[in-house]
Amino acid sequence: MVKAQTANTAKPFSAYQVHNGVIYVSGQIGVSPATGKLVNTSFNAEVNQVMDNIKGILNSAGSNMASVINVTVYLKDISQYAAFNQAYSKYFSEPYPARACVAVKDLAAGANLEIAVIAAQKNP
Q1: Which residue out of 38, 83, 101, 116 is catalytically annotated?
Q2: 9 touches 96 (CB < 8 A)
Q3: pTM summary value
Q4: Residue 50 is part of a domain; what is its CATH number?
Q5: How many domains does the chain have?
Q6: Which structural domain range is residue 21 located in?
Q7: Tens digits of residue pLDDT in 82-93
Q8: d(Cα 98, Cα 102) in Å, to the nearest integer?
């Protein structure tokens, strides 16, 4: 098992873990790595930041978005489901990853969504 470093070591979790060629990415919110602040100018902007964060983590772990197997989405407002799907669909093509989407009462840092993924490592 390979432990990944996180940008903020004060948090009691890793951004990702790799085990037997599978990458487990911790739930990501729309915090900009450049500013450390939540990108919440619009719901679409927040979705894009979350997906860009995931893409960056996968790249650093030797993978990419095409290798994502499973996605778990937590939405603070389920009425944003259609808007989420529209933004999300720009990051994947067929065959799409398996996915679960659930509505939650609240998320860290006032985020409107959080996404965790599981992906195959391209170069284990």
Answers
A1: 101
A2: no
A3: 0.90
A4: 3.30.1330.40
A5: 1
A6: 2-120
A7: 999 999 999 999
A8: 14
